[in-house]
């Protein structure tokens, strides 16, 4: 998803994640991002620092 959402305005990014959750409620979505606001769309996080 990073390439898909990195060019989106924040409100469009929010809409995209909300749509994924509503259309695919039983699927896992894995995001790789450097944008901290993406945290709001997930209930788990795995952070790799280094």
Automatic annotation (TrEMBL):
Superkingdom as given in the UniProt entry: Bacteria
Protein name: ABC transporter ATP-binding protein
Species the sequence originates in: Chromobacterium indicum
